[in-house]
Amino acid sequence: MAGRQRLHRFLQAAHYPSLAAYCRDSGMSPSALTPQIQHLERDLQGQLLIRGQHGHRMRLTDFGEKVLVTAHPYADQLDLAEGRNRKDEGDGARSTTRV
Q: How far is it, in rounded angstroms, from Cα 40 to Cα 33?
């Protein structure tokens, strides 16, 4: 579940000028998102983003672009799976959904 969630958040954040902008819109704190992106980068064995600094937008690396293009067709499924998992976590049930 956590891997899907990290990938889903990366796909969403990739469309923002910065991780901070994504965090503002999603209600997530940057201190929670940054380790998730770093964990995803370790999982995928490559840097996904070049973080923006001093007024510059963040950019996807070539690898990040490839991940975005490859995973984008599955974004709706990831979104649905994350929504199901949040609902399941709320009632104490465990999800066995596989993507």
A: 11
Own/partner pairs, 10-16, CB within 8 angstroms, 24+ separation: 10/37, 10/40, 10/48, 10/67, 10/68, 11/68, 11/71, 11/72, 11/75, 11/78, 13/37, 14/49, 14/60, 14/64, 14/68, 16/58
pLDDT digits (tens, 9 = 90+) for 16-66: 999 999 999 999 999 999 999 999 999 999 999 998 777 789 999 999 999
Q: What's the rounded Cα separation, in Å, for the pair 43 and 37? A: 10
Reference 48, options 82, 9, 22; nearest CA is 9
Predicted TM-score (pTM) of this structure? 0.73
